[in-house]
Design goal:
The chain is 40% helix and 13% strand. Strands 1-2-4-3 form a four-stranded antiparallel beta sheet, covered by helices on one side. The chain starts with a helix and ends with a strand.
């Protein structure tokens, strides 16, 4: 693993506003296919490009693809839009550093009202990535195993933490 790149990505994440940023190895990421059930039967709509919006078989393939990575960086922000922006910036930085398969996982917050829902076409398709749980990742268990605290939001409008990641190599 490239120690210099790891340090640079972590520093960039913090400089851009991440509350926390930690380098992980793939064995620290908890995959659980039950996350797809939550997407299919608990998500109020989701992004049009979520793997689970296509079909469950595709979702299982995406989870297997993610297991080809060795390391990455996981982030915590208190703002979905900031989380998405930081994630995409880190993905780009890793790519430009020679990690051509760098791939971010983040919620989409490009539009005030989702353009895809409103008119059937995404306004910013190059900025859309699937969230971690749509890739079969148990976010709660993963971050707790890293020593982070993460609680389920109890009421709509309560403060929430946004967890995103960039899979680098």
């Amino acid at each position: 693993m490239n120690e210099t790149l790891k340090h640079q990505l972590r520093q960039l994440a913090i400089e851009k506003g991440a509350l926390r940023a930690e380098i992980f190895t793939l064995d620290q990421i908890v995959f659980d296919q039950r996350t797809f059930l939550k997407c299919l039967f608990g998500c109020p709509g989701g992004m049009p490009y979520c793997p689970t919006k296509q079909d469950v078989a595709n979702s299982l393939v995406y989870a297997d693809i993610m297991k080809n990575y060795n390391w990455g960086i996981i982030l915590c922000t208190d703002n979905l839009k900031a989380g998405q922006q930081i994630t995409l910036e880190l993905e780009s930085a890793a790519f430009l550093a020679g990690c051509h398969f760098a791939f971010g996982a983040t919620e989409c917050e490009n539009c005030e009202i989702c353009a895809f829902d409103a008119c059937g076409q995404c306004a910013a398709p190059k900025k859309v990535r699937p969230p971690l749980y749509a890739l079969g990742i148990d976010v709660y268990t993963t971050v707790r195993n890293l020593g982070w605290e993460l609680s389920v939001v109890q009421h709509k409008g309560d403060p929430a933490k946004n967890i995103t990641a960039v899979f680098v190599e």
